[in-house]
Fold:
Amino acid sequence: MRFAALLLILLCCLMPRLGVAAATAELYAAEVPLQVRDRAAEDEAFAAALAKVLVRVTGLRDVRDDDALTALLPRARTLTRQWSYTREGLWVQFDAGLVRRELQALERPVWGAERPRVLAWLAIDDGERPAFVLGEQDSVWPPQLEVVDTAATPPAPDLPSDPGVLQPLLDLAGLRAGMTDVAALRAVPVVLPVMDLGDRVRVTPERLCGAGFDSWPESRLAVEAYAAAADTDLPWRVAAERYRADAILIGCARALGDRLVIDWTLQLGEGEAGERRRWRGDLAEGPHGAADVLARALAPVGRETGRYRLQVSGIDSLEAYGRLMRHLEGLSLIDAVEVERVTGETIHLAVRTRADANQLARALQIGRTLSALPGEGRYALVP
Structure:
């Protein structure tokens, strides 16, 4: 055991920082249109590119609402690392260190590469057909599924008798693009579910939004599943297990004239230990609101660093140790990691970070590598 502990400490000293560089480079790069290649037009393009980067990095929706950040835009060229013309316009890679120092000096938040994966469940009741959950592709309605007992599950009288792709009353492709485009603008990975048989049976509109969202039972299995649906955390578990999501965004949309009014809920974590935020708005407000909440949770302000101690159990091999260290070294919030001691399968660490305790705790669980245990600073490595 003494030899293993010494070996782990040696490996900690040698472990390089992994995973941050590529993600950081993407956050600090932007492409913008450029119609004319003269100095004035290029200056405007550099400023527009910096504005896009600052939206991602500060977590603010529009940096032009902040006078101090707006004052940075004319200096965009001085913060540039490299740039090039493209077919569409101008591509700019900004110097991450310079931009961070400017933001820290202005006491503005700096959101690093910690970007939780968010699965978006969007249940829609358009008043013209049974409610449905938007998937990443158009689904067939009624679904051509094997029915356990056809006598117990008669065909719906108001649905087409010939199964096929229902002509959408809504622009489903536009709904998908509306969410993913805003998510890309804020650099938050928002994904839609597949909504195959497995998803449709377990995650129905009723389960997401309540009995007012009535969908036609797709099979006897579905009827039984949501008839006994006391398990309100099932959408979260499906997201975590199947999609490896760190959070779920639930939208309950109803048609109001020619627009959708959506009640949004962002859930971070499972059950009573999890956190929920709720708001109402249009389609764009879903990913925008999620990004607002995540930025507040993960973007530290200023340069001050703190030191926290962590205990991580489940470190029973060098492979487990390597996974843990790659995870910690991949978090831009953490400036340094020190191994203090090893006790059995538990490793005791001291980390230096610019985040407060809550921000650090949230960041540690991104990617589902670590799960929190009772007690301050205690975690287990997820198998």
